[in-house]
Amino acid sequence: SLNSTTNLHNGVKMPWMGLGVYKMDVENGEARDAVLSAIEVGYRSIDTASFYKNEEGVGEALQKTNVPREDLFITTKVWNDEQGYEETLEAFERSRKKLGLEYLDLYLIHWPVPGKYKDTWKALEKLYNDGKVKAIGVSNFLPHHLDELLKDATIKPMVNQVELHPQLNQPELRAYCDEHDIQLEAWSPLARGKFFDDPIIQELAEKYSKTPAQVILRWDFQHGIVTIPKSSSKERQSENADIFDFELSAREMNRLESLNEDERIGPHPDEFD
Ligand code: NAD
Prior knowledge:
By secondary structure, the chain is of the alpha/beta class. It has 10 helices and 10 strands.
């Protein structure tokens, strides 16, 4: 269920599924309402970022809900132009205030800004050691970024959030993160619907009386990958969460691996700007 969690390497429990809120608006109440409906559906994990400019909207929902703080898992991220040691400590405070929280559950480096991400990591280690955040991690890091980070890190990232879906199934990164006990988290797990009409997805959806989105999210779950599908609609939030009552066979999982095209919808982590 939406309550099931994975243990990060420091013992913190992170829900297998959360709500992504990229592109949700603050002014018209979209972010607030989507978070509140997701919480009603049973979601306990929310993924935002300072870059999304909707931390206030998420914060409004967190003010309103009756679900206790300790049952929620709130992630935000430090944006590229906020990186560096002091800058990151300040960015964290800005995000924390916008969210209206005493502490965060997970703070991520959004992208590996060359020449900066190691200083940024030092700031995350300080925030963690000061108890302001329960877990720290990275996003869009390739193995070579992680190798570089681990040379001087005193704390190993607990999470790496990357673009990952059956058309970009990231075998090397999955192996690397497994080996280092870093939890992988998939962004754009549905690839924004790009391959819902793939014949294999369609066939499996029909076989299990599930939707294409549910087949894809189940594939992640069986691989031990955390997902954060985005939807503002309560119906789709419920649909995406309803993946805990069927199981894909080993052969079916393999058929889904065959969808890999190493094709990204977002930028390559060595080429973003
Ligand atoms: P996604 O793969 O979650 O797809 C979302 C889109 O699919 C939306 O347009 C939604 O309307 C539609 N959708 C959702 N559920 C559906 C369903 N059941 N049936 C049909 N359509 C459905 O894409 P995303 O929003 O890019 O990624 C999810 C989250 O990942 C983001 O909201 C954000 O929190 C995070 N993210 C992180 C990064 C990063 O760099 N770290 C980058 C992009 C996204």
